[in-house]
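Researcher: I need the complex structure. Ligand is guanosine-5'-diphosphate. Inputs:
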Amino acid sequence: MSVILVTGGTGLVGKAIQHIIETEPEGSRFGKKPGEQWIFVSSSEGDLRDPEQTKRLFEKYKPTHVIHLAALVGGLFKNMKYKLTFLRDNILINDNVLHNAYLSQTKKVISCLSTCVFPDKVTYPLDETKIHLGLPHDSNFGYAHAKRMVDVQNHAYKDQFGCNFTSAIPTNVFGPHDNFDLEGAHVIPGLIHKCHIAKKNGTPFVVSGTGKPLRQFIYSNDLAKLFIWQLREYDDVEPVILSVGEGEEVSIKEVADAIVKAMDFKGEYTFDATRADGQFRKPASNKKLLSLMGGFQFTPFNEALDFTVKWFVENYDKARTGVKA
Ligand code: NAP
Ligand code: GDP
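Model: Output:
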């Protein structure tokens, strides 16, 4: 019997893993296997910044495996504003989860990092060997340093205690159940919500920054399958980048254009170049992933974006939108 505890199980990525586990054919590569019990928890079952609450969560579920997603997460503007909170909350969460996994002899932990952890100035494409080769971009300095430390901790737990702890490094993620809060969100959910408001109120749709930066986006349901693969088929401390190909970079303008199209928005659409662009690009290689997995069919960006927009419009009342305008 395996008990797989997914921390942050009610967020964008957690909900996608739950969806895939529940909808893929049982026993298939990404479907539920006999003898597996999956548990998806939110902060309501324990604030993982707190050692006692984390200990109680591990005592309650006695997980054999952990997919550790829980984190203080946010887009560029939230990261710029709350650097210390991002640093501190994430250090506490990660330390509590990893140490309780060690104490309770959890067989395996996969923690979720992000391509934000990589150095700002480094040769592209990013790959798994480059995490610690220089300072991260200043805009997400707190978050990036906290997340980098997980890789350091994983190595130390392995070297001192033989723990099977590893990490996954996704690029920018999007999909249903994302955080669509206006200022705190990542670019895709933030702009979907802004475009929705502009359409409803007949106001301009304003995109922050120049629209020139490039990002690689992965659809949450695709990422979910990659996590399930990593849980079952990968046993090494070194991280794996979970990403579409490095040729799949999309500019923020292309993202905004695709949202305008998917929402059938006909109003005024502008860029506010006085706002930050953040890191210009962070292209990551998925070579290691594909060579280990033997190939993977990613959902085309526009198809996944259309689906996400449709989900948001249909689920506006229950979506995480922050203050509704
Ligand atoms: P999300 O939608 O914001 O969900 C965050 C999850 O973490 C929620 O279930 C939340 O529970 C939980 N959580 C937050 N603080 C917690 C705490 N103190 N104690 C216990 N649980 C807590 O985030 P996401 O986008 O799914 O991100 C999942 C992982 O992917 C994170 O590790 C993130 O760093 C990483 N990642 C995300 C992206 C992206 O573009 N979204 C890109 C790369 C990596 P409550 O709802 O109860 O607070
Ligand atoms: P990042 O990849 O960590 O920088 O995170 P984001 O998902 O927040 O992407 C930020 C990029 O999108 C930057 O170039 C922003 O200037 C641009 N952007 C444009 N409009 C928005 C918006 O409404 N919200 C966010 N978060 N970013 C936006």
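Model: Summary of the prediction. The pocket of NAP (ligand 1) is lined by residues 8-14, 42-44, 47-49, 69-73, 93, 112, 114, 170, 172-173, 179, 186 (CB under 6 Å).
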